[in-house]
Amino acid sequence: MDTESEPYVRLATLRQLHQVVADLNTARSLADTIQAVADGVVTGLGYDLAAVNLVRPDGDLVVAAFAGSEAGEALLTGKVGSREAWDRRLAMGRRWGSLRFIPHTEGWVLNEDDVPQWHTDGPLPRFADEWHPGDRLYAPMYASLGGGGDMLGVISVDSPSSGRHPGPWGQEALQMYAFQAGIAISNARLRANMQRALVRLERDQQALRASEESFRQAFEYAPSGMAIAEMGGDQHGRLLRANDALCRLLGRSASVMRRYSFSDLVHPEDVGLLLRTSAEGGRAELRLARRDGTYVWVSLRNSVVADTTDGPRFLLTHVEDIEDRKSRELQLAHRASHDSLTGLPNSAELRSRLTARICNRPGDKDAAALAAEVQGPDEFAFSYGYGPDELASPLGAIGYDSHTHVTAPDERDPAPGKGLAVLFCDLDGFKSINDRFGHHTGDAVLIEVARRLTGAVRDGDTVARLGGDEFVVLADGLAPADAADLAVRLRNAITPPIRVDGRAVRVGASFGVGWAGCGMTVEEILHSADQRMYVEKRSRSSSPRPSHRRAG
Description:
Elements: H1 6-24, H2 30-44, E1 47-55, E2 61-67, H3 70-76, E3 80-81, H4 83-92, E4 94-96, E5 99-102, H5 104-107, E6 136-142, E7 151-160, H6 168-201, H7 205-220, E8 225-230, E9 239-242, H8 244-250, H9 254-257, H10 262-265, H11 271-276, E10 283-289, E11 295-307, E12 311-321, H12 323-337, H13 347-357, H14 365-368, H15 370-375, H16 377-384, E13 419-428, H17 430-437, H18 439-456, E14 462-467, E15 470-478, H19 480-494, E16 498-500, E17 503-505, E18 508-516, H20 522-540
Antiparallel strand pairs: 1-2, 1-7, 2-3, 4-5, 5-6, 6-7, 8-9, 8-12, 10-11, 11-12, 13-15, 13-18, 14-15, 16-17
Helix pairs in contact: 1-2, 1-6, 1-12, 2-6, 6-7, 17-18, 18-19
């Protein structure tokens, strides 16, 4: 895979994973949930075939759902494999985290056991990680994200769309999905039990008394948090009851929990999300406060407990701890949007942040002409496809409402105003350090330069690594004089010696200050700052300009 495209592929895969996990939680019944698990492997994880094998009360595993082949579904659904045979498979499989992989060179010994399978023979692989029809890959499911407790079942997958064994990212995605599938199936069973209990409650008083005890046990001993809140009246939303799992999760006793509502416990940034969540069937992912002041990510799912006489009376809320999943998601998102060497936002994240600030309204004439002042009108018009008449107002006449437009200060005006400054930085002398002392020293220099740049800007400013020895700083609310002062401050922060392995090395820095403006493209903004940086460098050096500069 092209390393520059890997973050985009990861983000796309992460979005697909989010979608199929979300589908698991919208299924209306246990059967729908199990089928959604199988379908999600095919639609979201890139496998052509998938089967969900559930553990029965007697311990054996039954094929409860199949996806990817109607013939395979008709042949295998309902077939049973003994627990002994399954345990043998999982024990002999190679460990990929919680996954188990059995290559075709070893799995032939399992051909005669009673586990339902669809594997066939095929040609030998042409390369080391090519998938063979006889390869077997299993993802065990448990009732908790940590993989503890009894096994609920096993997801069997076959025929990756890529034709290769899944790499580290593919293995991690399948593990995360299996974790969430186990939670979804466990919760679906719990919801099914609770729904059946609620139906019995409505029949008669005798069934009501029996069901109350069943509900109490299901509520109190549920593996995840549950709460009952009041609906309507002066005490609307107040927690009437919280089970032990929820009390442990938030570090508060049941008596203390009754003093609060969820709106009292939710993170301030998530209050709006909580209020927008519908009471009946509502679901939201947000943060709740623990007793020690920290917050934990949870998924709230609400159901109304109806009173046959007065209508809805109580809100039953299921609280699922999703801290581990959220932590993984944040880590994956950070890796996709940040430079692996320096930890700074990467080129894609820089462009995303710039794009979020500008729109396609007509840019100010002065803002659009920034690059033209450096290149000259003819070269600028040719580079960006503008005709002579378009140069005065090159970006059309389309405006947008409900958006604070970004405009570039007019540097010729005595009171130019303030704008979003884009400082393009190129290190001077970096190549000679790389050539003389090696890439290890060069990497150490880049890391230290990134640290110094970050320490020299304000909170809220962005320091990004565009690539190689090029950095970009975004600083909002600056006048031209402020931006010039910032460039000097950043240059002075970079130039002191940098010690690497007992050796002191120096790099210089050239800065070009451009301005972002609505109506400009991201490439135009970066190109303008790059050109100004070149002008500064040319003014300090007589070396000829390279025939081409990489802008991203």
